[in-house]
Amino acid sequence: MGKVLKALFKVVMFLLIFVILFYMIWCILLFKQEDGTLPMRHFYDLPEGSVDVLFLGTSHMGMNLSTDILWNKYGIAGYKCWGSVQPIWNTYYYLKECLKYQRPKVIVLDVHSATFGYVYPDFVIQIKNTIGMRLSQNKIDAIMASSPKEQWGNLLIGLPVFHSRYNELNETDFEYFPWNRHQNITVLVNQNSEQVFPFDIIDKDQSSGVEPLHEKEEKYFRAILDLCQEENIPLELVACPYQIGEFEQKRYRRIKQIVSEEYEGIGFTDFNEVYMDYDIDTHTDYLDPGHFNKWGVPKYTAAIEQVLTAKYDLPDHRLDENHVWNKVKKTKASPVYEMDYKFYGDGKRNYVDTGMKLLDNIMDSWTILADFTVPPFDAEDRVILSCYDETPDHYQGVMVNIDEYGKLAVMFSSFEDIKTDILEENSRVQLAIVKNDRRIDVYFNGEFLGTHRADNLAQYSGPLLVGCQQNENGYFFRFSEPIVYDLQVFDTVLTETDIKSWEPRNLPEPPEKEYLSDEEIASGQLYTMDYSFSGDGQERYIDTGVKLYEEQDASWTLLSQIDPRIDAGDTVYFSAFVEDMNNYRGLLVRRLDEGKLNISYGQNKQIVVDIPVETPSVLAIVKETFYYTIYLNGEVIVDGEISPCDVHDLNLLIGCQVTMEDNLFRFSGTKIYNLEIIKGIMSPEDIAAWKPDPQPEAPKPIPSDVEYHLENSFAGNGKNFCIDTGIQLYDVADKNWSLHLVINYDKTGRGTALSCFAEDPANYRGLLVRQIDETNYNLTLGSAITNLTVGWDPVIIIDILKEEYHYTVYMNGEKKFETDAATKSWDGNLIIGSERLLNGSFFRYSNQKVRKLEVTASIPDEAEILQKCSEEYITDYFIK
Amino acid sequence: MLFNSLAYLIFFPVIVLVYFLIPWHRVRNGMLLVASYYFYMRWDPRFIVLMIGVTLVSYFCGLLVSISQKEEAEHVEKDLRRTGNAKIYTTVTIVAMLLVLGWFKYANFLTGNLVSLMRLIGVELAIPKLNVALPVGISFFTFQAMGYVIDVYRGTTEVEKNFFRFALFVSFFPQLVAGPIERSGHLLQQFKDKHTFDSRRVLKGLMLMVWGFFIKMVLADRIAIIVDQVFNYYTSYQGTILMLGAGLFSFQIYCDFNGYSLIAIGSAQVLGFDLIQNFEQPYLARTVADFWRRWHMSLTNWFRDYIYFPLGGSRVAKWKKYRNIMIVFLISGLWHGADWTYVIWGGMNGLMQVIGDIINPARKKLLAKLHVNENSFGHRLVQTFLTYVYVTIAWVFFRATSVKSAVDIIVGSVKTLNPWVLFDGTIYNLGLNQMDFWAMVISLLVLLAVDILHENKIQIRESIMGQPLPVRWAIVYAALFMILIFGIYGPGYDAASFIYFQF
Asked: CB neighbours of A71 closer than 8 A, spacing ≥ 6?
């Protein structure tokens, strides 16, 4: 017997451990959908008696109503137990299950699901509307009602349905063990969406008559009504406004008929008929045909609240400290904004951007608590807090400042405000502003000061600022000098008790400005110039690869040693500048006239300063988050000017700029002897001490060999014959060479005799020698184009001499012209008898006859050229 | 009812509990018979008639054979002329079983081939296609019944007079659907013994079932996803992917069939019955003949005893032996399925054995000349690999839907050399994502390890049983939850549809 008992014990233990492990795995793998599953699972975690209003239904209830707003604004303890496309039989079993744990004062049901007309929904709908229920008779009944027989076992056990989720587990999946509690008011789904889907709701009289409900749906609909009556719990039926169809209209009428004729005391509000009474705008308040966006949710919630408070006496639980949502709220990250340090306004540039867009949704409710000193009355500006739209003809929002008489004013528009009596300068005061829907209450030093009905308040997407304002273009202005000791923003409506009991925190002093140490300067180098830069105004530039404006609040120091003398091209020293005529921004340093330096920084800010005309200057630019300090030869020329600008990803370029289309331009002949970029802020002392020796000249690129001698005469066939000489005339743009070309003249000849030409539409350049008609040859030298008129000699002897960017052209030993034509380099070969495209293919084959071609790096003098020409005349005129 | 179904997970424990709670042996057998019939009827209740019919025919033929043999014996004693009735009844059984099989399994195949043949000589036949469902397990229980009567005729087993016991032998639920094909001498006797509850045996049986479930649900059904993708859309793939699909099919069918067999053997073991082993590490075989000694052993033995030996076996002239091998394997192919692809598959397996036998002396001579030790690891490995490759090529015919597609797959897999598809992420687009793919690879390595241990006569279950209880349980829990989590089962759902909120 003992053996049997031992074996039995083992079996029981084995099964027990198995069940525990199974349940743990079940909890991990369980679907965590925010509709259907989680609302039901979270419901089980609520303490008994914590729900006053139970909201049931489909996504029309779950996504359109905010129980957060109900709680925050009205103190109504409501809970949504819903699922998207939830069939009404699932709603019925959810209700039955909910009533086992809570006894709400009223139940609100969205009757949309009573109009669906189907027997079984899609399998996923079956899953999410049953799987979150605890194992119970209700769950079994719900599954049997929801699914065909073959799925009963799968849905009941659950694991066969969701075991393959091992592929998609995340942190949340490990938060659903039995010891975890999820007591949030509700799960939010898309309630902050800014998507807008405009449509029109059909007129309520568009159809007439009634449509019977589907048999199964009517059965469970009635079961819900009966259950509520049995339990003696008031039931409110609602139909959320949406893009309703005619048959749904008819079914809602049928519901109305059932409720009014067969049941007593059950209300039914079809919001499709009365939505306009609640300020709901179908053109702005929906994100799709059935669900509200962030502007619609508060309106619909307010509408539901009105329906509820008109009929039921629901307690305000916000004052009940023991209520679970008060506890949860306290443990949640509320307030939503807290200042980290004391704020000292300097009237010049100091401010704090809280990032809180208080008026982004005018239906939002919030509370501001602030503790600050009254700034001096004689200060030019006395703004303490602002979230205020400065668009002309649109001045409105919320702003706290001190008026010219010394009164503290909470302004809502040019002519709407709440003011205190005259205050003492530098006195310390506490202010609370509580926005509850459209009502704004102001408390001064813990006492109620006044209220304002903000009916005219319009949406404004700017943030709450401390110590300044922001104009319509986004620039900060009206910097003031208050000291703000504490500032907290809550996304809830705090009660008077909360406000009176508020104790400002003793915030730390703002941190001292931290300059880089020598080691940090050494290690924080983002770029250091190795060689002096000397621009050629044509093509030379340096891409430092450093993105100065990738982050809006980045801090860096740029040190440069620049020469004021510019010989060629444009006058840009360096740039990381967006050439957007609507939004010029970034950094651009260039010379204007001689002795004038122009520095553009941040967003649309610039300065023109004098610089020495003969000696190099040291220019240092320090960007500290949004503030710029600029030093020229040790003197501060810009002192902490604020200029935040939109981010961009342009690299800092030396010697040129880049267009909006990503093309380089304004190649400059500027000289920069040193340039360093360091991450972080260097101290003024370190900057003053920065006097480096000029970096050495960059080694010049070595030009390739140009020696070439055409061995046999060339006679083009105009179809497919040419000679690639293999030499490059422009691999270094300013290389020297001379070219001796002898062409057998043919008056009917046309086309290219010689080419070393870049067919680059953005920058055609190089050498081209082409016969264009009976008597004219066209010469392209660098970028200059010239015609060369030939006589009737049987041979044409052309000598082209190139010294850096200077060309001299001789014909038949006679100097014809000289020209300067600087170009960028080009790595194409010299071709006889055709041209070449960028992709390497030959085209424009000609029938030119080239008798001789000699290219050399040396530059002959006139006598040598003449000598060569006379030799050509001596030789036979005919092609060998 | 399938083993890997929720129904079986309820059915089996209930049966085990009831079985051991019933104190009376006869009632236990009766209960098992009812349970087996219920098990069979869960698939299609109509076919229980067929099952009973097969049982009745073989039962009475067995009896008649036995009676006739006694008469014959008396005739021999009295020196009278033999009646030959026993042979007649045996033949009747064989014909009846083959007719049943023929009707349900081969009728359409035969008529289809007849129509094609007649078309070749210009005669158009219009034979309507038979619309009959293939009864589950028909190939198994008809063979088992047939084997019994032949055994009675041969005198290698005693006739079973108890109809219910015999009915249970034909329909015993663990091996009803997919074998092993039991022999009357082995299983029938066990129904006469009373089985007591032996916790050690039960545990061993359960462990075998868990292992069976693992290789069926975690491995076979996971591999099937890739294999189905590759074979169904073979025209979309080339080279390495086709090779991978073919190579994996070898493991799919092994895991599928062996998994099922193991669950069957394990289930029977829990109840106290010992079923014959069906697989013995087939992919560690070194020749095709060796492979067939390890693959579906109950069927191979059946063919050996009832076809190969009666034809003369190997103790005949060489050509006859080869003929016998080819006959057995062509029939074996046909037994597996009514299509030419199966016949070719069977033929290929037979042919390789014949070729292997013919070239064996030459091969041995060559190895001796080259001083290759036949038992060296390298040689064994090469042999094992080549056998696997050949068997895999044959399996392509087994899996492909037509001879043409099988040829296309084989040719396609060697025509293009694109091994980079193993590394560029292509393999994760065959139905299994990266995690699932590697779960498959790791599980295959586990299977390989287990097979190697078994090959080396290491009894894993015995080793586990020898561990301390926490280790033992941890292993079992790990296996169970591996199956529950990583097994391929349950209704599929469209994950994407969860993220959409509809009205």
From this structure: A77, A78, A185, A317, A318, A325
Report the alpha-carbon angle A856-A857-A860, nearest 5.
75
Q: Considering only CB atoms, which chain A residues are within 8 Å of B493?
A: 123-124, 127, 161-162
Q: What is the DSSP string of A316-383?
A: -GGG-TTSHHHHHHHHS--SSEE-SS-EE--SSS--EE----TTSSTT--EEEEEEEEPPPTTSS--E
- Report the predicted TM-score, pTM, of the whole model to 2 decimal places: 0.60
Half-sphere exposure of A466 (CA within 13 A, CB side): 29
What confidence tier does A114 reach under pLDDT thresholds 50, 70, 90?
Answer: confident
What share of chain A has pLDDT > 70, as a percent?
A: 97
Looking at domain A708-874, its CATH architecture is: Sandwich (2.60)
Q: How far apart are CA A511 and CA A509, in angstroms?
A: 6
Tell me whether the CATH fold assigned to A30-318 matches the one assigned to A708-874. Answer: no
pLDDT in tens, B5-36: 788 888 898 998 898 888 887 788 888 899 99
User: Would you tell me how many other CB atoms lie within 10 Å of the CB of residue A522?
Assistant: 10
Q: A553: burial class by Cβ within 10 Å (0-12, 13-18, 19+)?
A: exposed
Q: Å from B498 to nearest chain A CA?
A: 7
| B478 shares contact with chain A (CB less than 8 Å) | no
CA–CA gap between residue A300 and residue A291 (Å, rounded): 10
* CB pair distance less than 8 Å for A161 and B486: no
The tens digit of pLDDT for each residue in A707-747 reads 999 887 888 888 888 899 999 999 988 899 999 999 887 77
- A515, A681 Cβ separation under 8 angstroms: yes
Domain chopping of chain A, boundaries: 30-318, 334-500, 518-688, 708-874
User: What SS3 state is found at B185?
Assistant: helix
- At residue B10, the 3 state secondary structure works out as helix
- Taking only Cα atoms into account, the Rg of chain A, rounded to an integer number of angstroms, comes to 41
Closest CA relative to residue B283, chosen from B386, B140, B363:
B386
Q: How far apart are CA A109 and CA A225, in angstroms?
A: 10
Contact B222, B441 (CB under 8 A): no
Nearest residue in chain B measured CA to CA from A30: B485
Which residues lie across from A658 on neighbouring strands?
A664
Region A30-318: CATH code? 3.40.50.1110
Which residues 3-22 of B have a C-beta within 8 angstroms of A?
Answer: 6
ipTM: 0.80
Cβ-in-10-Å burial (0-12, 13-18, 19+) of B425 comes to exposed
Query: Do A60 and B503 make contact, defined as CB atoms within 8 angstroms?
Result: yes
- The domain made up of A334-500 has a fold known as Jelly Rolls (2.60.120)
Q: How far apart are CA B86 and CA B466, in angstroms?
A: 52
The yes-or-no verdict on residue B145 having pLDDT over 50 is yes
Give me the residue from B480, B498, B502 closest to A33, CB to CB: B498
Nearest-CA distance B213 → chain A (Å): 15
Contact B477 A59 (CB under 8 A): no
* Chain A touched by B487 (CB under 8 Å): yes
Over residues A641-685, the pLDDT tens digits come to 888 888 899 999 999 999 988 888 999 999 999 999 999 899 888
Domain boundaries, chain B: 6-194, 202-486
Nearest to A59 among B481, B497, B503 (CB): B503
Q: Which of B199, B490, B501 sits opposite A160 (nearest CB)?
A: B490
A518-688 under CATH 3.40.1170.60, yes or no: no
Set of chain B residues whose Cβ sits within 8 Å of the Cβ of A33: 498
Cβ A370 vs Cβ A430: under 8 Å: yes
Phi-psi region of A569 (alpha: psi -120 to 50; beta: other; left: phi over 0): left
Contact A63 B501 (CB under 8 A): yes
